[in-house]
Design a protein that fits this description.
heterodimer, A: mainly alpha, Arc Repressor Mutant, subunit A, 9 helices, B: mainly alpha
Chain lengths: 196, 138
Amino acid sequence: MSELERSLIRRLQRRDERAFRELLELHRDRVFNITFRMLGNRAEAEDVAQEVFITVFKTIDSFQEKSKFSTWLYRVAVNHCKNRIKYLARRHDRDRDELDESTTTSGVNGTIGGPMPSSPHKQLESAQMEQRLQHEIGKLEDDQRVVVVLRDVEDLSIEEICEITGLPDGTVKSRLHRARLLLRKRLSSHVGENND
Amino acid sequence: MTEDVEDPVVAKVSDYLDGLLTGAERDDVAAKIQTDETWKRTHDELVEARKYLSGMRKAKAPDTFAHEVEQTIHKRSAGAFFGRRTLGDRVPFGVLLIVALLALAVVGYFMWSSPTGSLKVDKKTTPTEKPSVSAPRP
């Protein structure tokens, strides 16, 4: 952990509101991306991401500087997402695995970052693939979804994922393999359908 | 569910792509990818899937996100945090100090230069120049 981050955490532990704002600015997009990819719905993702930061504000005293702050933060985010998925499943909320329409019209409200392919055809293709992927991620079991989002979408290391999930190395890898296997099969069948 | 059964080829290729294999094991997988059709197909499909996953655009939090978080904390803490911000919260203390000193200097200058100002030194009525009063002779 850098000295700057350590100082920010200490200020936050003294309930310094400015420190909290700085922290929000630093991490909000990444936390939001995790919750969005985990839940597949913008409104739910926003609500959960807010709860993540409220939890951070309330429980920052329990953060021990043994691990990186981001690891602790992502653990809070993952736990909130899992709870929300369970809650939504209990409510039989069918919207939970539907891709939010704003993903495909992201350029309009500017809430999806990153460059879009230049030609309209490529843009459409890319948006469709992203929609398809999000749909398939949403169909994975929670535990598989967590590892695939953290590893393949967020590009975290296996070691970090073990720390975040509290799972041993072997379990993380095996869940990742299963998730990729499922995604591979489902995506290749989708590509096959499109080519027919 | 046959889908849940772990495929050893996928497991190995996955580890290979994640850079988790070392030495001979890595070379062995690399050789199989080159020579074996199943391994090659698995490799290509996983590379493709990972490419799509890592290429997913990053969702950004809405602009109002921070404000909403602060407002929620404010409400839940019964106003203890993120209340209406005072001037000291919005403007750094150093800036406030400089402005205060400048204001003080301006006020001081006007008081000094004013003909009626209390800081004005009136040379005509300085105590050293008091006219000597001679007592009337009886």
